[in-house]
Design brief:
seven-stranded mixed β-sheet; Rossmann fold
Length: about 250
């Protein structure tokens, strides 16, 4: 299956992988800036998000992304991943290092990190609300958890819309096909790597960025003192130049 995606611009390819609170629309503020900086931008919806249907068999998000790259004739690309999309980016960069020229991870998830009590409590509350059929409350729970204080009302509304849509698509599935929790060997990553964390994010993701900065050879780490979990949406005016400067230096 080819993931739902879009392509814009010309030049070196940058692949954008969305947070699992969102879909590929989360990159709306980045696409024009990256295209204007001379890049070909590819963004896709993982299965069960945005316009991509839920999986109908066991699958791998990382394999899906590489298959998409192949279909577009892209042998190498810079990859930018947010949260759950960062976890997918890590798997690609570690398992297929020759395919990734640069790697930027925004508040990334990682199989190697054990969930904190805060995240476990959040997950239990989300499950309870969804089991009770209260999708609206589960959506609000996610907005409050993951959108930082710098975000304006329009950004919060956009995250709300994307998360609500993901819930509706996934809850309509007849059968679930969860992916195995495979931990990539991040020391195998050869791409120049930037980790970005937010001072207002849940501690899990701040700790993950700091730990990965130690484990990935030559990786850099920047913590944004104003950011929550979705800095590229919360302050694109700051994050866009940060990403473009990183890509140009790669």
């Amino acid at each position: 299956m080819t993931l739902s995606h879009d392509v814009a611009g010309d030049g070196p390819t940058v692949v954008l992988l969305h947070s699992t609170v969102c879909d590929r629309r989360m990159w709306d503020p980045q696409v024009p800036a990256l295209v204007g900086a001379g890049y070909r931008v590819v963004r896709a919806d993982f299965r069960g998000y945005g316009d991509s249907p839920v999986p109908d068999r066991p699958h791998s998000d990382a394999d899906d992304v590489v298959e998409l790259m192949d279909s577009l004739g892209t042998q190498q690309a810079a990859v930018i991943g947010a949260s759950g999309g960062g976890r997918v980016a890590l798997e690609i960069a570690a398992g297929r290092p020759e395919r990734v020229t640069a790697l930027a991870l925004l508040c990334t998830a990682w199989w190697g990190h054990e969930d904190s009590a805060v995240v476990r409590a959040f997950g239990a509350r989300e499950d309870a609300l969804l089991e009770a059929g209260d999708v609206a409350a589960a959506t609000e729970l996610n907005v409050e958890m993951w959108v930082g204080p710098a975000a304006d009302r329009a950004t919060r509304d956009k995250v709300r819309e994307m998360q609500r849509h993901a819930f509706e698509v996934q809850l309509a599935a007849v059968e679930e096909f969860p992916q195995p929790a495979t931990e990539p060997e991040v020391a195998a990553i050869t791409a120049r790597t930037l980790l970005v964390s937010g001072a207002h994010d849940v501690i899990d993701f701040r700790e993950t960025s700091a730990e990965l900065a130690k484990r990935i050879p030559g990786a850099g780490h920047v913590e944004l003192d104003w950011a929550g979990h979705l800095p590229s949406l919360e302050r694109p005016d700051v994050v866009n130049p940060l990403l473009i400067n990183f890509l140009r230096a790669s």
